[in-house]
Amino acid sequence: MKALLVVDMINDFIREDGKLSCGEAGLAIVDFVSDKIDEYREAGHKIVFICDHHEEDDKEFLMFSKHAVKGTEGSKTIDELDVREEDKVIYKRRYSSFFGTELDLYLREQGIDEISIVGVCTNICILYTTADARNLAYKVNVYKNGVASFDEAAHEFALKEIRTTLGANVI
């Protein structure tokens, strides 16, 4: 079985005035991500929204400015994406969607062995989610037109790492 992971498509990363906005690159993938959600739903696959979600005093704020604090508008999935009751929503506090979350358990309980990934930021959360997924023996597809970063050079480097080092499909 397959699942689509929609990673960090939240206001703080996608909106131009977001705390850690990916700017135009983030906005440019919204329609593609929305189309993939529709495509996967129509095929009967699971949709998993992964949302960065921090406490007020999270240690990550020593490295990055304060963002995605739980209960704020910045931590919410953008309105353009249709989150439904049957979708799984998982909150994370670190780069990988697997670290400290129930994602692996959920996927295994659903019989999912292949995941496709869209979202932001390619060189941070997408890269580390892919690394953990591959280390957990999932088949992984990353949609090149469905991921973005605030740093184009780092985005390209991450796609290369995902393909060559991690052995995931970049499609």
Walk me through the topology.
Layout: E1 2-7, H1 11-14, H2 23-28, H3 30-42, E2 46-52, E3 88-92, H4 103-109, E4 114-120, H5 122-135, E5 139-148, H6 152-164, E6 169-170
Helix pairs in contact: 5-6
> How much of the sequence is in beta strands?
15-25%
Give the CATH level 1 class.
Alpha Beta
CATH architecture, please? 3-Layer(aba) Sandwich
CATH topology description: Rossmann fold
- Straight-line distance between termini: 19 Å
Which homologous superfamily in CATH is the superfamily?
Isochorismatase-like
Helix and strand sequence? EHHHEEHEHEHE
What is the structural class? alpha/beta
- Whole-number average pLDDT? 97
Domain count, please report it.
1
For the largest beta-sheet, the strand count, sense and barrel status come to: 6 strands, parallel
The gyration radius over C-alpha positions equals 15 Å
